[in-house]
């Protein structure tokens, strides 16, 4: 995940794109409603996978849908994550495992 003053870009690995049936995503920073740091992204995933990959207790990659919400998910066991809520975009929420969730949340905070 990288940010510029105007955009938030999610660059997925080749494996994430293939297994999760996803593509890289770029959204305007003005679409970011909130950012939340989560100690365990795997446990924070909610809804039904459609489409994507889920290895129970280990890895989740893909699109999760539930109660009028569509979430792009790429998390793994034991890794912290950030939940980024968006408005007016293809995905309502991004749930991504990152090495420095506090740094990502801090970088996105001014755009809220």
Describe this structure in words.
The chain has 112 residues and is α+β, with helices and mostly antiparallel strands. The protein is 17% helix and 46% strand. It is built from three helices and nine strands, in the order ββαββαβββββα. The chain has helices at residues 14-20, 41-44, 101-108, and strands spanning 2-3, 7-10, 25-28, 32-38, 48-55, 59-66, 69-76, 81-86, 93-97. The chain has a six-stranded mixed β-sheet with strand order 4-8-9-7-6-5. Strands 1-2-3 form a three-stranded antiparallel β-sheet, with helices on one face. Strand 1 (2-3) and strand 2 (7-10) form a beta hairpin. The model has no long low-confidence stretch (mean pLDDT 92).
Q: What is this structure, in a nutshell?
A:
The protein is α+β, with helices and mostly antiparallel strands. The chain is built from 3 helices and 9 strands, in the order E-E-H-E-E-H-E-E-E-E-E-H.
The span between the termini is: 17 Å
Q: What fraction of residues sit in β-strands?
A: over 45%
Helix fraction, binned, reads 10-25%
- Describe the global form: globular
Mean pLDDT: 92
Describe the SSE topology.
Layout: E1 2-3, E2 7-10, H1 14-20, E3 25-28, E4 32-38, H2 41-44, E5 48-55, E6 59-66, E7 69-76, E8 81-86, E9 93-97, H3 101-108
Parallel strand pairs: 7-9
Antiparallel strand pairs: 1-2, 2-3, 4-8, 5-6, 6-7, 8-9
List keywords for this structure.
alpha+beta, globular, 112 residues, 17% helix
């Amino acid at each position: 995940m990288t940010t510029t003053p105007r955009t938030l870009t999610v660059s997925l690995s080749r494996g994430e794109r293939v297994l999760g049936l996803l593509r890289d995503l770029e959204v305007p920073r003005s679409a970011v409603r909130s950012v939340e740091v989560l100690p365990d992204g795997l446990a924070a995933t909610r809804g039904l996978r459609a489409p994507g990959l889920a290895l129970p207790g280990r890895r989740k990659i893909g699109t999760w849908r539930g109660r009028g919400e569509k979430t792009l998910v790429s998390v793994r066991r034991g890794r912290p994550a950030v939940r980024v809520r968006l408005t007016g975009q293809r995905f309502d929420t991004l749930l991504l495992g990152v090495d420095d969730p506090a740094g990502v949340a801090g970088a996105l905070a001014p755009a809220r």
